[in-house]
Give the backbone structure.
Amino acid sequence: MADDLMSMFATMNTSERSTLIEQFVQVVPSADRTTAEFYLEASNWTLPTAITSFFENGGMNVQIPQRNPQAEFLMDVTIGEGESVPPNTHFVKTWRLRNNGAEPWPSSAHLIYVQGHAMHAESVIAVPALDPGQAADVSVDMISPAEPALYASSWRLCYNEGVTRYFGEVIWAIVTVAEGGTLPLLQQFAAASVSGTGHSGFGTPPRPVAPTHEHAAAVPMAHLSPEDAARLTTPPRFGSLAQHTFGAQRFGAPP
């Protein structure tokens, strides 16, 4: 067997990496291309050394962990401290998010509604495929409930590559509904100002102000992966908010 391998190596004189991977798989049919590339890289692309190392480590295919996109919440652009919405009123909830990882966001990235009071919002919101370091404002149209109260919903970034994968922290919409709320008027004024400047809301944002809530973790959902579910906890600053939001009280009732 060793003599046969040495004879085969003698006829495989190439420096092309793709060819070396093909040759590795040809010599070791049980190895996949990912494993071949892994051992070739570890052996400075020397085929005999790579194959020897493969067998010395049990001759098993390697499992390369997927590099998941990263995201962070920067600030609530709307619905900040002291802002409220009148009952039965259309408004726009906007978050500023940033890609704080080393990989671009996938083109299939979306922000999806997870749980809580959706306030008639769409459940899937498209987001731009941000490059590392880039930030963008992500908005969703909502309609405030009829009864004045504090309402909340949680949202997650995800993408689809055959299966749905979640990334980044949980995004919270915490909305105070009160008679005399002025947020819609402020948004109309802001929209008029933005239309005059041509600012799109994308790209590098100004220095963010402090967010209106702590970076909360998510509430467990049955369809989440075990890894995602393990990271879900009650948002710290609001104490029992999740209990009210997702329990039997009106805070958790669907729109």
Strands lie at 72-76, 90-98, 110-116, 124-126, 135-143, 149-160, 164-177. Residues 4 and 10 are 10 Å apart (CA to CA). Helices lie at 2-10, 17-27, 33-42, 47-56, 183-197, 226-230, 241-246. The longest helix spans residues 183-197.
